[in-house]
Design a protein that fits this description.
Blueprint: H1 3-13, E1 19-26, E2 29-37, E3 52-53, H2 58-71, H3 81-84, H4 98-102, H5 121-130, H6 145-159, H7 163-175, E4 181-182, H8 186-189, E5 194-198, E6 203-206, H9 212-216, E7 226-228, H10 230-241, H11 250-257, E8 273-274, E9 291-295, E10 299-304, E11 309-315, H12 326-338
Antiparallel strand pairs: 1-2, 1-11, 3-7, 4-7, 5-6, 8-9, 9-10, 10-11
Helix pairs in contact: 1-12, 2-6, 2-7
Domain Beta-lactamase-related: 5-327
Protein name: Serine hydrolase domain-containing protein
Keywords: Hydrolase
Amino acid sequence: MSALAELLATGREQHVYSGAAWSVGGAEGPLDRGWTGTRSWGGQALDGGELWDLASVTKPIVGLAVMALVERGTLTLDDTVGAHLPGYRDGDKADLTIRQLLTHTSGIPGQVPLYRDHPTRASLLEAVRLLPLTAAPGTRVQYSSQGFIILGSIAEAATGQPLEVLVEHLVTAPLGMQHTVFRPDAARRARAVATEDCPWRGRPVVGEVHDENAVVLGGVGGHAGLFAPLQDMELLGTALAAGGRGLLRPETFALMTAAHTNGLTLRRALAWQGQDPIDSPVGTAFGPDSYGHTGFTGTSLWVDPATRRYAVLLTNRVHPTRDGDGITAVRRAFHTAAAKPASRAG
């Protein structure tokens, strides 16, 4: 048993999650991969083909689609919200830029449970439009799922295409990620890992997006909603470790993954988290120029361009409840071990 396998099996024993899957590798593919546990407590054993709710790891995948549109000239990073969404032109978000949305410097607050008072897609989107800014744009990194909801709307308005179609055409299809989807169909739902026994829905959630705001939006959002199996996440990790191969031109990818918030409290690239020197979710073993993203359900993807290494971790740490913070230590220990040299997987 590899060190990663042992570490993640221990996480299950500590009831941090019922199941976990992982892959660590580089530009040529996986070096260490596997899975442990069950789809739910008392459920079927994992076999490696399960579908995982990526949660906020959706954000950088949507970000890759947005950067592909920038590369094609459909959008620019300095385009404003008001330029693409007429309903925003008379409000406080009219002059916010795509760059500010991507770097979480728009001033739009995040983690707002709008679903509680806005049970329809139209009313929730209107609530996002009216949500007051809580920081001056460009002055603070303030994580905002609502900002990425707006970003998804901009991408749709600029192209006339639904967000799920854009993500497929610009990101998942080029990499062969055949099972990475919003709104899994019945066959894919049957292979999904359980998330929360949701108080709001009154039932366990399996194969339906965990994020409640995304539920109201119909399962598709710029901030959450994608599901993927381990193999597809390996394809993405390998492409990122190879400098965005198959996704973006080298200069576009370099721009996307560079730090854009120097002088502010948190290090952010375009749709990616940067490596913060203090309280990084992945610890300190990955280099200072590394980037990635975490997801509330217990998922993460991290890449170190200096070593051309990626690390994928997929868990259901919100099963059966979101209470508990055991994933914090597990995730840091995983990335510390993942940064060490390893032989290629057989």
